[in-house]
Amino acid sequence: MDIHNYHPTTGEYLGLGVADPSPLEPGVHIVPGYATPVPPPRAAGRAIAVYRDAAGGVPQNAADGAWTAQPDYRGVPLYRTADGSRFEAGAEYSGIGDLPPFLTDEPRPGPAHVWRDEGWQLDDALAARLQADEAAARRDGLLAEAERRIAPLLDGFLLGELTEPEVERLRSMSQYRKALRAIDPDAAQVSAWPQAPWD
């Protein structure tokens, strides 16, 4: 008698087997655990046949369950809806069955998108904050470079040791630094950045 084996953890169809005849009952075959004489349904698309009980578990005894077709997301890139990070199948979700609410197969379009209403939505407030953070980081980096270049000239200026061209260079660097400090990262958009005098 043909039997159909299924995985003890996932319930997925593993393949065809043959039941052994019972040594005590002629004409009766022994169906081992995690196998059934009922053939699995034909699954189409991204679905596979799995054997489950009423509670969704995998029964050892075939009489306690039935075949169902379940989505198969193994091999499909999945992402967490909380932050868009990649998800690897495991104890939280094996990749078989409907996606849990914390997962999606849609990649996050960008860091300013949040999962809302079953899809990624652009969050204007988050986009503005990220833009302000980026502008602040750029401004601070440029200020640090300006400070590094100004420091040796400033010492020479205070000691009266600079030549006229060096004084002019210090003046232009100080104007550049002042312009950088005037940049407001929280403005809707920083439209113009001052040109560094050493470029």
Observed structural traits:
3 domains, 12 strands, 27% helix, alpha+beta, 3-stranded antiparallel β-sheet, Tail fiber assembly protein, rod-shaped, 199 residues, Phage_T4_Gp38_tail_assem, single chain
Question: What would you say about this model in short?
Answer:
The chain is of the alpha+beta class. It has helices spanning 124-158, 164-181; strands at 2-6, 13-18, 20-21, 29-30, 35-36, 47-52, 66-71, 78-80, 86-87, 103-104, 113-116, 119-122.
What is the fold's blueprint, element by element?
Layout: E1 2-6, E2 13-18, E3 20-21, E4 29-30, E5 35-36, E6 47-52, E7 66-71, E8 78-80, E9 86-87, E10 103-104, E11 113-116, E12 119-122, H1 124-158, H2 164-181
Antiparallel strand pairs: 1-2, 1-5, 3-4, 6-7, 8-9, 8-10, 11-12
Helix pairs in contact: 1-2
Organism: Cupriavidus malaysiensis
Pfam families: Caudo_TAP
Protein name: Tail fiber assembly protein
Q: How much helicity do the residues have?
A: 25-40%
Quickly give the structural class: alpha+beta
Number of helices: 2
Strand order in the sheet with the most strands: 2-1-5
Strand count? 12
Main beta sheet strand tally, sense and closure: 3 strands, antiparallel
Task: Indicate the low-confidence ranges by residue numbers.
Answer: none
Order of helices and strands: EEEEEEEEEEEEHH
Please state roughly what percent of the residues sit in beta strands, choosing from under 5%, 5-15%, 15-25%, 25-35%, 35-45% or over 45%. 15-25%
How many separate structural domains? 3
Radius of gyration: 34 Å
The overall pLDDT, averaged over residues, is 92
Distance between the termini: 83 Å
Shape: rod-shaped
